[in-house]
Amino acid sequence: MSFLRTILRSPVGHYWLYGVAFVVISIVVWLSAYSSISVKSLSQRSYNSYQCETVAGSASRPEQIFRILDLFILDADSLANALCQDPAFAQRYTQVNVSWMHRDQIDLRSLFNQQYELIFSKPELLNHLAEGVSDNYLALAKHADYASQLIALNTVPQLSNDYFRGKRLGLIDDPLSLSGYQIPKAALKKADIDDTLYEVISYKSHDLLHRALLLGEIDVMASFAPIGSVQNTTARKSLLLQEKLLGPRWYLQSELLEQEIHCRVITHLQAFAARHVSPYINDISVLRGCLREA
Questions:
Q1: Would you say 96 and 66 are in contact if contact means Cβ atoms under 8 Å apart?
Q2: Tens of pLDDT along 200-234?
């Protein structure tokens, strides 16, 4: 204790006390400031949907939403933004909403009740619904028909037990997917491939399948390609399973046909397809043009 008193009475001890006092005061000030900060909770939003306001805004009149249902898992944010910036569109709607989901997640009652104005879907979904429901939506435009194939790197896939032994097979996590689930599963069964020889790994989209193949997470995958483009390259090898599958279509609520909305949707769909990063989406054909623009 005498040694400590000696140190504290010395000039060095004074500096040491000043240092301790400074640290204590700094901590007190920091705690006081921190306690006064109001921490805001993160706003919750659905990452399966996107919404924007039209140029007229929502304050000028009662809310009227143009709803788009995407069952192809496509990045349609830019389409929604383009519709929101269209003055003609804003005359009728205050907001545009895009919802993404897999076909096995959809409540068919929402289609029967016409809760969506525009739907992007494979045709088999609406074609297989009851007549009264399918008549609620009519196809405006379509993308190219396609083929189902098995894809691997470096070696051509084979429908044999020897090829699939120890392989990791990537499929779409959707039993309603033709190219990514139903057709490859049927082909394996028809070829009498022992399903204990390989492992199935499921992915939510075709983009994720291709990524997994490139990263080496899977050895072979089932996916689609436009008809005529199924060909082998130095690194990418494919095996054709089935051709002539109908491409996805854009369906408009039937009561909106031949109105100004019909015309504007066609214009924006063509522009959206043209600027999309996927060459497959770039290719779009109008099935039901707008007579007002003729």
A1: yes
A2: 999 988 888 999 999 999 999 999 887 665 555 66
40 versus 12: the higher-pLDDT residue is 12
Residue ranges per structural domain of the chain: 49-144+247-293, 146-245
Show the 3-state SS of the chain.
CHHHHHHHHCHHHHHHHHHHHHHHHHHHHHHHHHHHCCCCCCCCCCCCEEEEECCCCCCCCCCCEEEEEECCCCCCHHHHHHHHCCHHHHCCCCEEEEEECCHHHCCHHHHHCCCCCEEEECHHHHHCCCHHHHCCEEEEEEECCEEEEEEEECCCCCCCHHHHCCCEEEEECCCCCHHHHHHHHHHHHHCCCCCCCCEEEEECCHHHHHHHHHHCCCCEEEEEEECCCCCCCCCEEEEEEEEEECCCEEEEEHHHCCCHHHHHHHHHHHHHHHHCCCHHHHCEEECCCCHHHC
Max intra-chain CA distance, the chain: 103
Contact (Cβ atoms closer than 8 angstroms) between residue 275 and residue 78:
yes
Amino acid at 206: H
Class of the 146-245 domain? alpha beta
Q: Which residue has the higher pLDDT, 247 or 176?
A: 247
Phi/psi for 257 (5° steps) reads -65, 145
For residue 16, the model assigns a pLDDT of 53
The mean pLDDT of 250-266, rounded to a whole number, is: 93
HSE at residue 95, side-chain half, CA atoms within 13 A, is 14
Choose the CATH number for 49-144+247-293 among 3.30.70.260, 3.40.30.10, 3.40.190.10, 3.40.190.180: 3.40.190.180
| Fold: same for 49-144+247-293 and 146-245 | yes
